[in-house]
């Protein structure tokens, strides 16, 4: 019970910080909008190809925008060594980690919702909104995978002298299975390809469980030194 | 002193083993009927892959031991193994590419196995980037151990996820029945040679790294 209570307190702290500072979420939203514009030029998206390109574009935006957001939220902990006050409080490192994962998950999901809406508007692709109930498990599992690895690695990266710049180098190779699963299952759903997204969802479930347990074991070593 | 003797012994062994291995590969092993001489790259390619895998497993185990024992020598062991692992993985990619050009008619293809090795390569490059970015010795060890563990565990997941794209990589086990017995012997000899090379490189580099550390401590003491 204490574990959940502490994690929720951390989450509440981050939401409060976000409402007051508007640092990470607003940056993510602008970046994702910018990405949509750039992709429009780069790929010349029209009514014919939008359905085929959608899943790839969206997951690239989700992963890169996510890096920016998660780098920010752990930078805010590293600034003036704020995380030390958490380390010295009765909150366990594991519940601190869980709280940070929850806040990252929340911000990422908000960014994704925003991106999906603007994707539908800008490229006249309402199908992505009507298929949302089917896409939801894909988004949830994929984003959870991002948040689990991203939270852990952003704490590693921000401790180095390269700071957030290092995050993509550590994070992207490890989340390849999530990106692969996300792109493939979204593609299957949007284009009605045979087979269904089942086994891709399975891979994402395995990934999430694996990294949840590993991170809970290892996070302690990142903030206690 | 004991390690010193082992290093010298392994070095002398390699002086015989490596030329012999190349002699066996190029002169003794029969030429493959379909692929011709290019197939000889396999003996190096697979041996390098096995050695890279052994080195990266050593990173994983040393990382766990470091987090458990908090002894910096395990961190040195992990980073030295990672150096060897990255070196060999790079050579695996290069040798595979050299083989693929005449046989598959491309330098690179997005095959699951190739992709897995490439991702693995990226993960361990990240490992060294992180190490380069942290000055504090203990923190560096602690953080890179986390990457050493997470990166290694990721490999089977990446492998599994990429497998659903149709693989064109040749599978030795499936063709194992038809493999020429001489080829098989040369293959095992080559693998053994490269494993000896891996152990030699590890011990040699490990001793060097420990000396560097000792030197740093001495320098610091003299400054104080």
Descriptive notes:
The complex is a heterodimer of chains A (225) and B (224). Chain A is mostly helical and 225 residues long. Chain A has one domain. Helix content of chain A is 83%, strand content 0%. Chain A has helices at residues 2-21, 24-43, 50-78, 82-87, 93-122, 127-130, 132-159, 167-174, 176-191, 198-223. In chain A, α1 (2-21) crosses α5, α3 runs antiparallel to α9 (176-191) and α7 (132-159) runs parallel beside α10 (198-223). The longest helix of chain A is centred in the middle third of the chain and has 30 residues, at 93-122. Chain A is globular and about 55 Å long. The two termini of chain A are 27 Å apart. In chain A, 45% of the residues are buried. The radius of gyration of chain B is 20 Å and the shape is globular. Chain B is mainly alpha-helical and 224 residues long. Chain B has one domain. In chain B, 34% of the residues are buried. The A-B interface holds A 149, 152, 156-157, 159-162, 166, 169-170, 172-174, 176-177, 180-181, 199, 203, 206-207, 210-211, 214, 218, 221-222, 225 and B 67, 119-120, 122-123, 125-126, 129-130, 132-136, 138-139, 142-143, 145-147, 149-151, 153-154, 157-158, 160-162, 164.
Estimated share of beta-strand residues of chain A: under 5%
Largest interface, counted with CB-CB under 8 A? A-B, 29 and 32 residues
Number of domains of chain A: 1
In the predicted model, the low-confidence regions of chain B spanning at least 5 consecutive residues are none
Number of E-type strands of chain A:
0
Q: Could you say which structural class the secondary elements and strand pairing of chain B correspond to?
A: mainly alpha
Quote the distance from N terminus to C terminus of chain B.
Answer: 30 Å
Q: Domains counted in the coordinates of chain B: how many?
A: 1
Mean pLDDT level of chain B: 88
CA radius of gyration of chain A is 18 Å
Which regions of chain A contain 5 or more consecutive residues with pLDDT less than 50? none
Distinct helical segment count of chain A: 10
Number of helices of chain B: 7
What's the helix-strand series of chain B?
HHHHHHH
Alpha carbon gap, first and last residue of chain A: 27 Å
Q: Please trace the helix and strand order of chain A, writing H or E for each element.
A: HHHHHHHHHH
Shape of chain A: globular
- Describe the main β-sheet of chain A briefly: none
Q: Could you estimate the helical fraction of the residues of chain A in percent? A: over 70%
Average pLDDT of chain A works out at 89
Number of strands of chain B: 0
């Amino acid at each position: 019970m204490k574990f959940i209570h502490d994690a929720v307190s951390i989450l509440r702290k981050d939401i409060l910080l976000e409402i007051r500072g508007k640092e990470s979420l607003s940056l993510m939203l602008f970046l994702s909008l910018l990405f949509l514009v750039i992709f429009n030029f780069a790929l010349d998206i029209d009514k014919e190809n939008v359905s085929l390109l959608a899943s790839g574009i969206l997951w690239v935006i989700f992963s890169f925008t996510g890096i920016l957001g998660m780098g920010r939220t752990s930078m805010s902990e590293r600034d003036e060594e704020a995380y030390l006050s958490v380390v010295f409080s009765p909150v366990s490192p594991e519940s601190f980690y869980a709280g940070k994962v929850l806040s990252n998950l929340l911000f990422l999901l908000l960014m994704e919702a925003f991106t999906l809406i603007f994707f539908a508007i800008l490229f006249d692709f309402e199908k992505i909104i009507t298929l949302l109930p089917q896409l939801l498990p894909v988004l949830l599992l994929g984003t959870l995978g991002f948040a689990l690895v991203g939270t852990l690695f952003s704490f590693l990266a921000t401790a180095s002298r390269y700071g957030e710049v290092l995050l993509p180098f550590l994070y992207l190779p490890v989340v390849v299975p999530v990106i692969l699963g996300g792109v493939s299952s979204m593609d299957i759903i949007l284009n009605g390809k045979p087979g269904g997204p089942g086994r891709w969802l399975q891979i994402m479930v395995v990934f999430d469980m694996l990294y949840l347990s590993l991170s809970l074991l290892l996070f302690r070593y990142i903030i206690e030194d | 002193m004991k390690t010193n003797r082992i290093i010298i012994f392994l070095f002398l062994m390699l002086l015989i083993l490596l030329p012999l291995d190349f002699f066996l590969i190029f002169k003794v092993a029969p030429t493959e009927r379909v692929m011709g001489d290019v197939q000889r790259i396999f003996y190096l390619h697979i041996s390098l892959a096995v050695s890279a895998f052994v080195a990266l497993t050593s990173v994983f185990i040393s990382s766990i031991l470091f987090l458990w024992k908090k002894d910096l020598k395990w961190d040195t062991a992990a980073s030295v193994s990672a150096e060897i692992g990255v070196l060999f993985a790079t050579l695996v990619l290069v040798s595979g590419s050299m083989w693929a050009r005449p046989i598959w008619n491309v330098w690179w293809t997005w095959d699951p196995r190739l992709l897995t090795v490439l991702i693995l390569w990226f993960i361990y490059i990240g490992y060294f980037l992180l190490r380069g970015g942290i000055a504090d010795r203990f923190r560096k060890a602690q953080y890179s151990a986390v990457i050493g563990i997470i990166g290694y565990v990721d490999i089977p997941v990446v492998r599994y996820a990429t497998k659903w794209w149709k693989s064109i990589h040749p599978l030795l086990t499936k063709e194992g029945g038809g493999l020429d017995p001489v080829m098989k012997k040369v293959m095992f000899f080559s693998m053994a040679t490269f494993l000896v090379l891996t152990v030699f490189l590890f011990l040699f580099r490990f001793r060097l790294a420990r000396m560097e550390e000792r030197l740093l401590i001495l320098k610091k003491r003299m400054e104080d």
